[in-house]
Amino acid sequence: MDILRLHDLKKSYGSTYVLKGINLVIEEPQIIGYIGPNGAGKSTTIKILAGIIDNFEGEATVLGMDVRKDSLAIKQRIGYIPEQAALYEVLTPLEYLKFTGRLYQLPDNVIDKKSWELLRLFELADKANMRMNGFSKGMRQKVLLISGLMHNPEIIFLDEPLNGLDANAVILVKEILAQLKLSGKTLFYSSHIMDVVEKISDRIIIINNGEMVADGTFESLKAEAAKGSLENIFTALTGDEQHQTTAGAFVDVLKS
Fold first, then answer.
1. What span, in angstroms and rounded, lies between the C-alpha atoms of 87 and 102?
2. 57 falls in which pLDDT band (50, 70, 90)?
3. Which of 12, 160, 178, 211 could form a disulfide with 17 if both were Cys (CB 3.0 to 4.6 A apart)?
4. Total-model pTM
5. Cα(34)–Cα(207) distance, rounded to whole angstroms?
């Protein structure tokens, strides 16, 4: 059974297609780096796989289940960490985690134990009973990460999971992701932070204008593009190599 399969996946808004026929198979646990420019279709792909968007063309299966027909069963077995931490901010972290834990049908004693331990590891135990409407973006992101992982999902979809985190938290989350992979999890990871994707991904997929333009290990993409860093490879494959010229023009305008 494939962990994940996409066949000719398309998604349009009106007459505009944001996904134009994505074909992808994941057969074994690994970290997939899914990158592309803004508007390339990354978040749309993840939302389809997580069962949030069901109006699409083509086929999508997760753990052998049809995303359209079995979205609830799929949601019980996956974790989803979106880019924006849209939490119920009038709740405390403990209240929010109990709410999400019950959605995953975890017993209350398990929810309570995991919530306290995970909040402590993220240095939020002293904020466990505070309303989240006063939390920083990074603090809300930590609660969101815990809520998406506390049920120990088999596949984890992450859309810019490091958003708002400080340097120490970024290092910790990178290590958590690496150890989740070692424990047999599959991570589907979308990010604009190229060096993180380069370091943690077993396989990197570059998407541009709704189409896959590259798929392979970092070393294979580097050999193919002969551009060195993932940032340079990305720039070459997405057809935008004018950054230096544009940056120079920007600074010239500032000086004028």
1. 16
2. very high
3. 12
4. 0.85
5. 7
